[in-house]
Specification:
492 residues, alpha/beta, Rossmann fold, Outer Surface Protein A, domain 3, 3 domains, 8-stranded mixed β-sheet, 40% helix, 23% strand, elongated
């Protein structure tokens, strides 16, 4: 681990004018997500300890002001005072040194904080392996959740487990009228408040357990990336990382508690990992947590990590030197996973909306190969489709629908002694897994392509089946409801 974490009282030395000037320089130097993305494209998938020398080498060759800032604040490299002042004014460099944010070692400077561009903002935080109980800035899963998070005009937003304030600040930057972040750690609240000042954004940050500090308020959007890493009994708890012995205890508790602070029509977005344990199906666990919530809820489940990868990845985060502490952590984690019967985990993205009056709450679980393809537009489309699927027969018959532009009907012909064919729906956007269609369902798809209103789909199918519309209506509506939930059909 790195040395003692930064004393956050040092951040109070920066006045708003200095932070505004720093913010302007970060933007002028184009130290942004696009630039960091180029660095992240070097040896992707490797442990940071393995890839950092190559990343730093590229940044040194690149040599721009953005590269200097990335070396110092994102990739733990040392820079000279002359290099730093090629990116920021001397006054800013002196202020960073005086506050103890930068540490001089001979002619070189190193940073005691991590500063990352995120969704048009910059988020300062501890390094993830800092001594004590550090506060996390934005990571890959934070980026995924931000892509899924749609902020509407007039929204009041709550970020639960806000860490350094990443998602709360992204919501404020996107135009939310009021933003609140809550975290169990006072240190996280301090970092978040500093980051709001750094970005010139207004948000309120409170310390407390999940939604307890805001139990008397209601929000249009509640978003959370709770800690979800499995904690072995012999492992010291890290607040931002560990979600319990199984890993998903905090996330499941949040699913039960968050609906209490949703406004009418309010939305919920939660992203976490859950272990696959024999006799404990993840989809059932999620449904139980959402039972009685009054939500139209969806859980998108995608493959996660094997036990070995979990033990290696999360042990290396807190033990980047890969020393004896790393080995002990890997062994303790593997023993713990094997004791619980956990061989792998899955990624779970839950998005939900408080059901309107007259709607029937539901919980739908979808399995997909790639959860990263889900963005705000896809989530909104699926929620609208599911709300339509939950409507009465008469209301559904009058609704307009269309076949998804991302869906393909594929016919596969058996070769050799096996005779026959099968029809499959394939989605080119990779969000929804392929599924097989019966011949009857294929006729229904054809009918949906020819008709814009569900009532006309019934008539088209009745003609094809040489039956009366009343005789096939139940089957058509059942198909339409399932297709709206799967994404094969979309409303409008």
């Amino acid at each position: 681990m790195t040395g003692a974490p930064l004393d956050l009282e040092a951040l109070e030395h920066f006045d708003d004018a200095t932070l505004a000037e720093l913010r302007e320089r970060l933007a002028t130097c184009e130290f942004d997500a696009s630039f960091v993305g180029r660095a992240e494209a070097i040896a992707p998938g490797q442990l940071d300890q393995v890839r950092l020398p190559a990343v730093r080498s590229w940044l040194r060759r690149e040599g721009s002001p953005a590269a200097v800032l990335a070396r110092l604040f994102a990739y733990r490299d040392r820079v000279s005072f002359e290099e730093l002042t090629s990116a920021v004014p001397v006054r800013i460099a002196d202020a960073l040194l005086a506050a103890g944010v930068l540490v001089a070692s001979g002619p070189d400077l190193s940073s005691r904080l991590r500063l990352m561009p995120f969704e048009g903002t910059w988020v300062a935080s501890d390094e993830m392996d800092a001594a004590g109980d550090p506060v996390m800035g934005p990571g890959a899963t934070t980026q995924q959740l931000a892509r899924t998070m749609a902020v509407r005009p007039g929204d009041v937003v709550l970020d639960v487990g806000c860490g350094a304030g990443s998602l709360a600040l992204a919501a404020a930057a996107r135009g939310a009228v009021d933003v609140v972040g809550v975290d169990l750690m006072d240190r996280a609240v301090a970092w978040s408040r500093f980051n709001a000042r750094l970005n010139g954004l207004h948000a309120t940050f409170l310390a407390g357990d999940l939604v307890t500090p805001v139990a008397d308020r209601r929000f249009d959007l509640v978003v959370s990336q709770p800690p979800y890493v499995i904690r072995a009994d012999a492992t010291e708890t890290t607040t931002y990382l560990h979600g319990g012995r199984r890993g998903d205890e905090i996330a499941l508790r949040l699913l039960r508690e968050a609906p209490r602070v949703l406004a009418p029509g309010g939305r919920l977005l939660v992203l976490f990992d859950s272990p696959v344990i024999p006799g404990r199906p993840v989809e059932q666990v999620v449904r139980v947590a959402l039972d009685g919530s009054g939500l139209q809820a969806f859980a998108v489940i995608a493959p996660g990590h094997s036990a070995d990868v979990q033990a290696i990845a999360y042990s290396s985060v807190r033990n980047p030197a890969l020393d004896a502490g790393y080995e002990a952590s890997v062994l303790a984690t593997l023993e713990h996973l094997h004791t619980l019967g956990i061989e792998r985990s899955v990624h779970v993205l839950v998005f939900a909306r408080r059901a309107s009056e007259g709607e029937t709450p539901l919980a739908v679980v979808l399995e997909t190969d790639r959860a990263t393809r889900w963005d705000a537009r896809a989530v909104d489309g699926l929620q609208r489709g599911a709300a339509l699927a939950a409507s009465s027969d008469e209301a559904l018959l009058s609704c307009a629908i269309t076949v998804s532009p991302h869906a393909w009907l594929v016919q596969e012909q058996a070769l050799g002694p096996r005779r026959g064919h099968r029809l499959r729906v394939r989605f080119e956007d990779d969000r929804t897994p392929d599924f097989e269609l019966s011949d009857g369902a294929a006729v229904l798809v054809e009918a949906a392509m020819q008709a814009r209103v569900v009532r006309d789909v019934v008539k088209h199918y009745a003609r094809a089946a040489r039956a009366k519309p009343a005789a096939v209506q139940v089957r058509v509506l059942e198909f339409v409801r399932g297709a709206l939930v799967s994404g094969l059909l979309i409303a409008g």
